[in-house]
Write a structure and sequence with these properties.
The chain has 25 helices and 17 strands. The strands form 3 sheets. The chain has a 6-stranded parallel beta sheet with strand order 7-6-8-9-11-10, sandwiched between helices. It has a 6-stranded mixed beta sheet with strand order 12-13-15-14-16-17, with helices on both faces. The chain has a 5-stranded parallel beta sheet with strand order 1-2-3-5-4, with helices on both faces. Helix 10 links the parallel strand 4 and strand 5. Helix 6 runs parallel beside helix 8. The chain is elongated, with a radius of gyration of 29 Å.
Length: 656
């Protein structure tokens, strides 16, 4: 790692007392300013970029481990630019230090390898950078500093510091001791300096080292960067404007050819550092494992070992609910995939007191290598993106379904960047909470399913949960969400699939000889659909039962497979303890949906199911009434078609 040398040579008569290395930085800074002047920028943006130009140039010339010839080598320093406002400064640095082939690429995420994160909402880049620093810390403990020895730098705006996600990520970074994380920030032209100072104070209170430097004082900037390399806490460098400039005049800072391109200090230092790393990597005893993890390959016999570990953990499980089996699969995965990193929110293991007393439930042990994030789900979700972007790790989190709206912005970023992130959302909110109230997830499932590149899994049994886990690991288009439920609607195991499998997103669980009705459900409602099919048989109505745990996988199957599963004729009935928005995709224009269309009720889960008519008896009545009303069912019946029961609106205050 480059450091500020104490034996620099000074030329006070020519450049105001600057050393030879500082003179080269000043010349590069002037060249960067010329490139910025050639771009069409707003006045406020140009002011901020001019203020940050010299600190960023000093970072690239003196400290940053970056090889333009290989901008994506594993042990490079991560330089995160989370906003489009700062992208012109990154473009200038790449033009001064990179080759022609890099200059020809558009500076967009996914197209230029030097762009570490896609620009997004304010604060998300800071949280992602904290995740990258956590990834570096985790990998260095496994492989040593000979293979993992880099830093994460963030070029942030003052608006990033005031966001809730950045503050939560900053607190987690201070708690985890991410001393290789540094943020460079400058106040905007319209910023209130009092508010900017308050942001610095909050970061300092979160366990960060905060340094204030004059953005035009090159010796002070190099001193602050050298102190950052020695810091044992995350560092925030505030670059403040000054009325007196201490950099040399423009006519004295014309860059020579040996200071740009492949001859720049950044390119020469980066190439030398990468060659040394490659020599160490070739002799490292964990080379094969390092390559496997960075290429995201699974270990040999992984599925067999994982399934055996899951079955062994399920022997000591208190129940076979999807939540218990999903968490057992998570811990079994940590036994077989050492690259798994799980961030856990305290809400993930919240269980009502009545359930604890009845079942003796206890929170499972923390996943090895995981981190507890308390109730800071917003910052936790943002850090997951950084863990995925860093590479070499499999990021995962466990949180309550009730907190999904706080994580939504980070989840959308993961889906946009198509990053492999696993989200375990426990406790669907239907059970009576510790405070006496319940939270009905009416629209959450529909909103998650509407997110592109995001796969949502809602299994209905322990075996189906494991199949969904396998499918989530194989999902390559982006992140995956597993929605787990702490309740069991039936103590019996679901029957073997009659056609298809859960790995294809949807399958037939029960297939009569001639189906008149197709009951389609997900999650715990699959057991209710099975019970309803038995009641319908007693009423001379043949009903098939279909489970669709993942819409995205099922939509990707051939049309012939979907038609066979859903049936070519007859009534389709969707059953889910959520909003019916989007279910017309599978039910068709004449389908029937049984679910929730309201929230705010304070009652146990069984009372909620009865209130919304999500019971086997109520489903049978609605199906039979619909068939007779449409003329699909005629002739004598053991039961007269009853009218559907009228639901009473308003809060239900019944308690067990």
């Amino acid at each position: 790692m480059a450091t500020v040398l104490s034996t620099d040579q000074y030329f006070p008569e020519e450049d105001g007392g600057l050393s030879a290395q500082q003179i080269s930085v000043a010349r590069m800074g002037h060249a960067a300013r010329l490139l910025l002047r050639a771009e069409t920028l707003l006045p406020d943006t140009r002011t901020v970029l001019d203020l940050m130009c010299l600190p960023v140039t000093a970072l690239w010339c003196r400290v940053l481990r970056f090889d333009p010839a290989a901008p994506d080598w594993p042990d490079r320093d991560r330089f995160v630019v989370p906003s489009t406002t700062m992208l012109p400064l990154l473009r200038a640095m790449l033009r001064l230090t990179g080759g022609k082939e890099q200059m020809a690429l558009p500076l967009e995420y996914g197209r230029h390898p030097a762009l570490e994160v896609a620009p997004g909402p304010a604060g998300q880049g800071v949280a992602a950078a904290a995740g990258m620093a956590l990834a570096e810390q985790t990998l260095s403990r496994r492989f040593g500093r000979s293979l993992v020895n880099h830093r994460t730098w963030v070029l942030a705006q003052d608006s990033d510091l005031v966001t809730g996600v950045a503050m939560e990520a900053a607190q987690l970074a201070g708690r985890f001791g991410l001393d290789r994380l540094a943020v460079l920030v400058a106040p905007s032209a319209t910023a209130d300096l009092a508010d900017f100072t308050d942001s610095l104070t909050r970061f300092s209170a979160s366990g960060w080292t905060v340094r204030k430097v004059d953005a035009t004082n090159l010796p002070a900037i190099t001193t602050a960067l050298a102190a950052t390399l020695r810091a044992r806490k995350p560092t925030l460098v505030a670059c403040l404007p000054s009325a007196t400039a201490t950099i040399p005049a423009d006519q004295k800072t014309t860059p020579e050819e040996e200071l740009t391109g492949q001859w720049s200090p950044t390119a020469r230092r980066g190439a030398s550092t990468r060659r040394s790393w490659l020599r160490r990597f070739a002799r490292h005893r964990q080379r094969a494992e390092f390559e496997r993890e960075h290429t995201a390959r699974q270990p040999t016999l992984f599925h067999e070992d994982w399934q055996r570990a899951w079955q062994w953990r399920m022997r000591t499980a208190l129940d076979t609910s999807t939540q218990e089996s999903g968490l057992a699969a998570l811990h079994a995965l940590s036994d077989t995939r050492p690259e798994l990193v799980c961030l856990t929110a305290s809400s993930a293991y919240s269980v009502p007191p009545t359930v604890r007393e009845q079942t003796g439930w206890r929170a499972p042990p923390t996943v090895p290598g995981g981190q507890e994030c308390s109730i800071q789900e917003h910052g936790m979700a943002g850090m997951l993106n950084g863990l995925a972007l860093h590479g070499g790790l499999l990021p995962c989190c466990a949180a309550s379904m009730m907190t999904v709206d706080r994580m939504r912005s980070a989840m959308r970023m993961a889906a946009f960047m198509r990053q492999k992130v696993l989200y375990l959302l426990t406790d669907d909110g239907l059970a009576l909470g510790d405070s006496g109230g319940a939270w009905q997830p009416v629209e959450q499932l529909a909103s998650l399913r509407a997110t592109p590149n995001l796969a949502v899994f809602r299994p209905g049994s322990a075996e189906e949960t494991f199949k969904c886990w396998e499918a989530a690991l194989q999902w390559q288009n982006g992140p995956a969400v597993l929605v787990l439920c702490p309740r069991q609607n039936t103590p019996q195991r679901l029957p073997a699939p009659a056609y298809g499998s859960a790995a294809r997103g949807g399958y037939v669980l029960k297939q009569p000889e001639k189906r008149q009705v197709t009951l389609i459900a997900s999650g715990p409602e699959v057991a209710i659909a099975l019970e309803a099919s038995h009641h319908l048989v007693q009423r001379n109505i043949n009903a098939a039962v279909v489970s669709i745990p993942c819409w995205e996988l099922f939509a990707g199957q051939p049309a012939s497979y979907r038609r066979t599963v859903l049936g070519n004729a007859g009534l389709r009935v969707g059953i889910e303890a959520a909003s019916g928005f989007g279910w017309e995709r599978w039910l068709g224009p004449d389908g029937l949906f049984v679910g929730m269309d309201d929230f705010g009720t304070s009652a146990p889960a069984n009372a909620l199911y009865e209130r919304f008519g999500i019971t086997a008896e109520a489903i049978c009545e609605k199906v039979e009434h619909h068939l007779f009303a449409s003329g699909a069912a005629r002739g004598p019946s053991l039961y007269a078609p009853d009218q559907p029961r009228t639901r009473v609106r308003g809060p239900l205050l019944t308690r067990p």
